[in-house]
Amino acid sequence: MGHRNLCVVGDDDQSIYGWRGAEVQHILNFQKDWPEAKVVRLEENYRSTAAILEYANRLIAFNRVRHAKVLRPARAGGQPPRVLQLQDETQEAEKIVADILVRLSQPGVAARDFAILCRTNEQPRSFETELRRANLPYVLVGGMSFFDRKEVRDLLAYLKLLDNPKDELSLLRIINTPARGIGNSTVKHLVGLATERGGHVGDLLPSAGQELQLNTSAAQAVSDFHTLIRSLRQAASRVSLAELVPLVIKETGYRGELDRIYSDPNDRDARAATMEEIVNAAANYEEHTAKPTLRGFLDEIALGHSDSSDDKDNQLRNNAIALMTLHSAKGLEFPYVYMVGMEEGFLPHKRSLAQEGSAIDEERRLCYVGVTRAEEELTLSFALARRKWGKARDTVPSRFLYEMTGQAENAHAKKSGPQRVPRDRETRHGKMGGGVV
Q1: Domain limits at 84?
Q2: pTM (2 d.p.)
């Protein structure tokens, strides 16, 4: 480059795409690589209030390898961020959606003013369900709805078939999922014969091999599928929902099929996490329902399914609550921001916990990005217990909460998990009550 005219704009504190190959050192080493370059620090912030930026500056200062800079607010004052500690992920979703409902009743406040930011792709499930229950418009930004994922649809199809043997759509979806040797030709013959007789495909399964004159392997495959569904239906009448869902995953071999299809460990983990969330949803429904049933659970899950047309989707995008991951939120801004799941294992993510060092630094930058999306008010929430494969497990508040609230000395003194606190405990000014810190 003969003229050596070069302009670079970047913020090392917002470098959050290391998993895509982005390298923060490119920004950190710029002055070393181009020593004659003039550095202009853009430190004045016109978006967030002073109270929000106080949290952001205090947090990011814990990253030692960074350009020294402090965001200066153009807007003084502001409401101090809230820290909400809730009993579990269900109450977390209920509390936040209820809070949004109250704010929406105020003059001049619109759905587009709100964002719910999650660390992982599985967290939106409970919020999608709760937002639909409250009839609030929302849009999932930068990703697929939890309820539209293949793993979710497949698993729910099994549950629907167990609940209703005549649910032909569900049966046809999973008759060869995972692959069990029932080919398209066999399925076509089954459907044709059922149509001819005015009956259901499920009624033909016990005698399909003989009636359709299938070859030995196809007949055995259909017979095995029939035996599987019959066995699971019997189990559904005697085990809890929290036990039934993992039983379906195990007996169908669905997890093994994922391991076979997806060579990338991250893909396998992500899809396994999706299935785990359905198990958790079943356990949560069972715990919070007086008379839980499989049909009732399926009805509740149906709240998450979108039946809107393209026109309605476009309308929602013009005025809807944004539900997204922190990575998708970069570059956006909202008057009211809720950062949820502020727990060790979520933010910072469990993968980074195993690596520490630079991995934690990137998670901290991700948290910083989330905090600085808020213009007027920021709410940080965590659950005291969260389900893992249907079993409630105590959580540990994120170290970033301690850092933001000026209590970093307590960040590592929490080996046994947080002490339980009264429902809806809410704190301001960074003082997390109830014996948590």
Answers
A1: 75-145+308-428
A2: 0.79
